[in-house]
Structure formats: structure tokens, C-alpha cells
Amino acid sequence: MIPYKNFSACTSMIVGKDASIDGSIMIARNEDSKSSWPKNYVIHQHQEFDEEQEFVSKDNGFKMPLPKIRLKYSATPEWTDKFGLFEEDGFNEAGVAMSATESTYTNKLALGADPLVEDGIGEEAMVTVVLPYVKTAREGVKRLGEIVEYYGSSESNGILFADHDEAWYMETGGGHNWVAQRIPDDSYAVIANQSAIQDVNFDDPDNYMWSPNIQKFIKENHLDPSQNESEHHINFRQTFGTADLSDTYYNTPRVWYGHKMFNPEEDYEPTSQDIPFIDKANRKLSLFDVQDFLSSHYQGTPFDPIGEGSEHEKHLYRPISLAKTQEAHILQIRPNMPTPAAGIQWLSMGVGAQSSFVPFYAGANDTPESYKNATGTYAPNQAYWTYKLAGVLVDPHFVKFGPKLNDTRADLRLKFQQAVKKADASIEGLSNVELGDYLSKVNFKNAQIGLDAYNKLISDVITNSTDLSPINFTQDMNL
User: Fold this and answer.
1) Potential cystine with 435: which of 43, 151, 392, 430 (Cβ 3.0-4.6 Å)?
2) Predicted local confidence at residue 229, as pLDDT
């Protein structure tokens, strides 16, 4: 038995604009926490206050002042704020996308020199105190970095940022240190609960950012394990990260499978600790490739929990998509589009392998009622619970109903692709006000298309499950 840590365990992917098939930048993540823990999808309107506001976390008491101007932004908060907001991902009106966080872990040597701060900033607060106050991805890294330096961090995290020009991945280490790397335009990255960033080049501020005192901190505390210490480079993963048994069985297999999907000719093992953070795919990657990665569970290998491997193999590694996924998102920023229509928040409620990614234009003014005000127990009129119910009904008879589920997902992919194409062709000439209203109508319609398809699937499964009860009897017709 592997001694797993108590993980809030997500899986992330980033695709540069020259690595994608249509020139899009994509940042994406599965938000994994615990099963049956609903999410909402909301839009906070632009607001200008007379006085500075104050954020106070219900999670750990972290608090800080906020600017008077708050940009409009979308988010996916928890169904209850009793334990904090956890807004997790969204776009703001400037076209900046943010996803927070990919939980990571700092090694004990680094933590001994710079402990976590109990009431410092954590995942729960990051989107709320950063996204509405920045106009570029680089500004997002800078703002969050300054918060970590001043208030400290209560946990170790990886944070994804993007705008129409570039994508960034940022990691915190210990209580006050951090680095960030710009993802090369022609590359992709997959991350799974480990410090991922490797080489940090302090002579290249265009492509790297870092906390001001990190070099001095590393040197004074003798944290760099490399044989050839350099004042110009560090390996952040080796200096701050972990590489223990939990990583081997819980984290690295997910990274391995991502590279297997996009670079199958590369020769890595599921337990390899030296898989690169940045890589180039053997083809241009599409939105569907990212959806497939977030929805995957080692298909085509003996490690698939619903595959044909041995019972030991099927439960050896933690899959990418699993029952504890609350929502999965792909924040896509498309080229040559006006900002309100360039960003699409592809949102999958519940388990990615059993749900569908619904496109929501970032420039909309509101979200559907079925995506707001979720409750902690099942309710048939809520999006999260509708998608969750379909998976729960299919699970016990996957061989029989799995094909129906997959057909529904495949059909919705095509419908949503066509819906986006149709909407894109209709926005020319619309004013900003008209565009916001139009995109809201498009989003509401797409949301309903997804729910209608899943309610039909639920109806089919229930109707055809009535004869599968163990309380049954087949009578011999000769009697």
C-alpha cells in the first residue's frame, strides 16, 4: 500500500498558440477534490467602489485590501462559501484567463528554511484577489507573486495564466518563494501535483519571472542539490519539489500518459521522475486533444480502471479523470477575434470522462440558472447534478450503457463545434452591448443543448435498467 498524502489533486495542461491547430492558446485543468461536491458557474459584473474593499477568507483568515475597480470576470465557485470561495477558473473583461490551482508540494529542506504561512494566501482566494485586477497574463503573475512575497502562502501551488499573446505557468515553493515560466508558443505542458518547472534562467526575464530574493535564499540555505551550482540558473523542481513514492504512483503516471498521447514515440515509464515539463507534440493539438487528455484514464494500457488489465494493474496508478472531479475546464483564447468572443470557457461539470465540455463565451453577461445556486444534495434542475446523475446510473452497468454515454458525448462535441462556428459568423458589426447580450443567448442555448442530451440519456438508462435488478426471476417457459 502506497502511503498517499491527503491530496486536493488536479491535472493541468497548457498549449502554446503555435502548438495548436487553430492558433489558440489553451490553459486547462481538472478540479479534483471530493465526489459529490457541486460547483457553480457565475459572472461577476464590473464594479467601481468609492473606497478600497477588503477580502477576508473564510478558509484560513487570509485578508488583504482590494483595488476600487474590479473588472468583470467569470468563475466556478463552490456550492457553499462556508469553507471559502474556491473560484478556481475564469476570464476577465480584458481577456485574461486564470486557473488556480494545481496543488503541489514543497520538500522538507525548503520548508525548513521558509515555512508555509497559516493565514497566507491559498487556492481558495487566488482567482478572487487576482483575476479581476489584471490586464495581462504577465500582470497576473506579478500581482500574485507580490501577494505571496508580502503575505506568504499557506500551501504550495501551480497557477495557470494566459492572454491573447502568451501563456504562463507559476509555482510557489515554501512560504514566500515563487517562479514562473512562459510556455513557448510551439510547445505544450502537462502537470500533475508535482513541482513541474525545471530550468529557471535568471538572465531571461522575458520568459521567466521569480521572487526577488530567491537566488539569495537558495544560496544561504544550501538548497540547490545540483553538482554545478550556477548564479544564473536553478532547477526549481529539484530545489523545491518532491520525488517520493506518492509522486511515483500518484503523479508521474498522469504526466507520462499525456506525453504518451501527444508524443507516443518518446520512451518514458509511468514512474519516470525525469519527464520534461515542456515538450513539443508530434502534431498540432486541437481542443479535442485537450478534452481527451482531461477525460482520460489510461485507455489502451493495462492501467485503465475499466480496461482489461489485471486487478492489480487497473488500480496501480491514479487516473487523470476520476470520480472526485468537481469540474473540468479549458480556457481557450482564439486569434483574430474581438476580446469578448475570443475567449471560450469550455466547462465540464462533474467527471470529465462522463460529462461534456460546454462552450461558454467569455463576453456573456450572465450564466444559466441551472449553473447557479447549486445545492449540496441532488437536485434535478441543476447542471452539476444532471451530469453527475448520468455517470452514477451508467457506472453499475458500464458495458451495457457505456456506449450510449460515449455516443451522447460524441454527438455533443459535433453540435457544440457547429454552434461555435455559427455564433462566430454572426458577431460581425455588433456593438459591445449587443455582443454581450448575443453571447449570453448563445451560452444559454448551448447549456440547454447539453442538459437536454443528458436528460435524454438518463431517461434511456433508467428505462432500460428496470430488468437488471438482482430481485428478478426468469421463468421456464415449459412450466
Assistant:
1) 430
2) 60
Q: CB 115: neighbour CB atoms within 10 A?
A: 13
Q: Is the CB of residue 352 less than 8 Å from the CB of residue 328? A: yes
Indicate the pTM of the whole model: 0.96
Query: In total, how many domains does the chain have?
Result: 1
Q: At 38, list the grid cell.
A: 457541486
* pLDDT at residue number 5: 39
CA dist 58 and 428 (Å) reads 44
Residue 10 designated active-site: yes
Residue 300: CATH number of its domain: 3.60.60.10
Q: Is residue 394 part of a domain?
A: no
Q: Is residue 198 situated within a structural domain?
A: yes
Catalytic annotation, pick one of 8, 9, 10, 129: 10
pLDDT band, residue 467 (cuts 50/70/90): confident
Residue 91 inside a domain? The answer is: yes
**pLDDT, mean of residues 468-473:** 85
CB atoms within 10 A of CB 386: 23
Domain that holds residue 179: 11-372
Task: Indicate whether 255 belongs to any domain.
Answer: yes
Closest C-alpha among 397, 369, 374, 368 to residue 460: 397
* CB distance 153 to 121 below 8 Å: yes
